[in-house]
Amino acid sequence: MFGTPNVGTYGAAKHTAVGLTKTAEGANANMNIRINAIEPPAITTPTVVDLTK
User: Fold this and answer.
1) What is the pLDDT of residue 2?
2) How far is residue 5's CA from residue 50's CA, in Å, rounded to a whole number?
3) pTM surpassing 0.70?
4) 24 vs 36: CA distance, rounded Å
5) Burial (CB count <10 Å: 0-12, 13-18, 19+), residue 10
6) 18 and 37 Cβ atoms separated by less than 8 Å
7) Where are the domains of the chain?
């Protein structure tokens, strides 16, 4: 496992989306309401390009 500088906000935002989806899923499971989330992969931005170097 390793850390990458300057991408903490990306990781936090990604986890927020996952966490909210799981919370909504659990809160609505007894009513047979299905909750889904689509999370696109990283797009080419200057930060992503810097990570691949």
Assistant:
1) 62
2) 11
3) no
4) 9
5) middle
6) yes
7) 8-51
